[in-house]
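Lab notebook, page 48
Experiment: co-folding of the full assembly
Goal: obtain a model of how the components sit together before planning crosslinking
Operator: M.T.
Materials (sequences as entered):
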Amino acid sequence: MTLFALGIIGVLALLLLILIGVPIGFAMAAIGVLGNLAVLGLNPTMMQMGLVAWEGGTNFFLIAVPLFILMGQLVYRSGIAADLYDCVYKWFGRLPGGLAVTATLTSAGFGAVTGSSVAAVATMGAMVVPEMKRYRYDLKLGTGSLAASGALAILIPPSIPMVIYGVWTETSIGHLFIAGILPGLLLAGAFTLYIIVRCLANRELGPPGPRFSLADRIGALWKLLPTTAVFLIVLGGIYGGVFTPTEASGVGCVGVLLVAGVMGRLRLSVLRQALWETVSTSAIIYAILIGGVLFSRFLVLTGLSSALVGWIGDLNLDAYTFIIVLVLIYLVLGAMLDTFGMLILTLPFVMPLVLELGYDPVWFGVFLMMMIELALITPPVGLNVYVLKNAAPDIPIGHIFRGAAPFVLVSLVVVALLVVFPDIALWLPRTM
Amino acid sequence: METVSVPPRLSLMLGVCRAMHALGVWVGLPAMVLLVSVDVVLRYFFASAIIWSQEINTLLLLVVLSAGLPLATATRRHIRMELFYERMARPAQIAVDLLTAAIGVAVAGMLAWQSVSDVREAVRYGDRADFIPVPLWPFHAVFGIAALLTALAFLAAPFVRVQRPLEDAPT
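Observation: model returned without errors.
Model output:
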């Protein structure tokens, strides 16, 4: 059997294992190990396994993963988001669809200090859905906006998937973070605009909230301080070249600990839960990374990746067609896989093509984050939708998915803008 | 956080997995936060740096990442596609569970086996960190123990009952 045929069989076997529900990291590891055994034999394979696990586990850039997860956990569990929401509501609640607009902008702000979309949805859902019911909001629009805006956390830095992408593709994590800012703000703005236009056309969809006095609004601004301080320290430090992303993650953790401590919200139970969850989540990501590296080394041995690059090259696809094909592939994958599964499973195939066709890896990272965001709100997996359903059990799941559908379209419009105007992502990193 | 219940015969193993997890929670992770931030403060405010901090931090990272594997496995937290699994008949689900256990035991078992050899080599050649006299073999050993526990956890996972809030999903 040729190496190429072995590679094809490996890929098909991997897809089968993933489809039937074997954990993705271990499925990739198993195929990678079996493939390496067939090609290299036992001893080199065993040595490679040990090396991959050691190199992955001691990769300096990966330190940012547990530390940013911890930072997000601390923000999530210490209730800092409630203050952010209160301030944003006093300023924007009066707009048509004010609650949904507030939820969108708060989620963007929350994403700027957590990097966890499900945490954003869980927090916002619990706070906003009861208010939406009180003001007789159209719950399809309301819950759809909540599910969609929660996903902004993946695009707006700090973002854990961006760190993984950066480590995997050897792309500057700092540049990726900074590149995500403008597209993230653009997407948040587009969601907000969509909500306002819908609610202007039909005021019953989202009635405006109460008007607050200027004194009240200015008085609420201090509540922005914790989030703003953490955001400025982390991203300002990276942008200004003061910190590396890894250093920023450690400083960010200390920043959130100090803020939560000063606000009297740092209980031992909060700290324990945050630490416990951080170790679990980091380990899960580690498993998928080890599996991904083993599988991708097997792919390199078989020459499948280079053959794929050659084949796509021979098709002479223009830049836009290639991106449209990728959008379709990621929409289909996003319907079945979660964030990290999608990321690690596709990078060994897609990244060589992206580099061969001359795309900027920073730009592609931002594009990929936007596609991953869509996966969180599209059926049947749509994790954000299920998290929101938990916060609002009486709202049918189909209602939330239907409510999120227009936001998928809005996101695709922003993706199109990013493709046509790549500087939306690339301008800011160039100024660093 | 999740609620976990296990048959009595597996409670010892789950306890060991929790102890391993606690190593990452109470030792590895706090030490990393402390070391990274102290190093930043020293470098930018006192124009001084801990030269071994980067190296020790990467070793602590290995402790954190590997310490979390056994409990994550025992409580079935690994990322998987559940779309078709949930629609399968019970016998098919059991077959997938058995296959998953076999794959997990094989992969984690091989990693544990390899780490025995890595510990031996590290001891024989006196491998240590470059900037501080810390031997590397204990870190190979921690990884090996974590891999071994992960292999055992794959065997136990089908018998562990877990109730977990969706917010704990790793996204």
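Interpretation: The two ends of chain A are 51 Å apart (CA to CA).
Next step: discuss with group before ordering constructs.
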